[in-house]
Design a protein that fits this description.
This protein has 4 helices and 10 strands. It is an alpha/beta fold. β3, α2 and β4 form a beta-alpha-beta unit. The structure holds NADP nicotinamide-adenine-dinucleotide phosphate (NAP).
């Protein structure tokens, strides 16, 4: 099973602020939805709560929430207290590609534990004020290819480029 991070980070690695995103990029959101549809998505408790209640659990996906609170109640989602357990759960379900969808703490944990095989990282072409950032990682350990680029337009205040990272093993 492939473990894939999917994230959008600005030029200064900004991910979000006040438990929310700091941009509205519909074409990148569509890429997220299309890529993760039908798969297991693994999320930190804070990112999960940042999703408007009416949209969670994210539909057409198996949602797994990571929290240290074993009694955490997330209707329609699985709750686990450990990232490795989330990955095991996905594997037990016969998943072929499980997506780590954030936020910052969970991305950092997944990379630190070297559990990630692949990443879709959108580079948002701007710098944003933020309180959560994508973690630093060693680019030398990854093969990178560009997936597509989207220019700024009437629906997108800034352009962005989606890159695929494959972990060298
Ligand atoms: N731009 C993007 O692509 C993107 C994607 C996702 C999220 N975001 C943004 O990221 C921000 C949220 O990220 P965040 O870093 O604040 O929080 P987070 O990673 O979503 O969640 C953090 C929570 O996960 C749980 N957790 C963390 N480490 C754990 C461990 N080792 N074992 C068990 N549970 C653990 C804890 O939950 P408990 O406190 O319940 O124990 C912790 O408070 C928001 O602003 C969101 O909009 C951006």
């Amino acid at each position: 099973m492939t473990v894939t991070i999917i994230a959008a980070r600005a030029e200064n690695n900004a991910l979000g602020k006040n438990n929310d995103l700091v941009w509205d990029l519909p074409a990148d959101m569509k890429f997220f939805k299309d890529t993760t549809r039908g798969h297991v998505v693994i999320t930190g408790r804070k990112n999960y709560e940042s999703i408007p209640e009416r949209f969670r659990p994210l539909k057409n996906r198996t949602n797994v929430v990571i929290t240290r609170n074993a009694a955490y109640d997330a209707k329609g989602a699985f709750v686990v207290t450990d990232l490795r357990k989330a990955i095991e759960l996905a594997r037990d379900k016969g998943e072929t590609e499980a997506f780590v969808i954030g936020g910052g703490q969970i991305y950092a944990l997944a990379l630190r534990l070297d559990l990630v095989d692949k990443m879709y990282l959108t580079r948002v072409h701007g710098e944003f004020d933020a309180d959560v950032f994508f973690p630093d990682f060693n680019e030398d350990h990854w093969d990178v290819t560009e997936v597509f680029r989207h220019e700024a337009d009437v629906n997108h205040a800034c352009g962005f480029t989606v890159f695929e990272y494959i972990r060298k093993r």
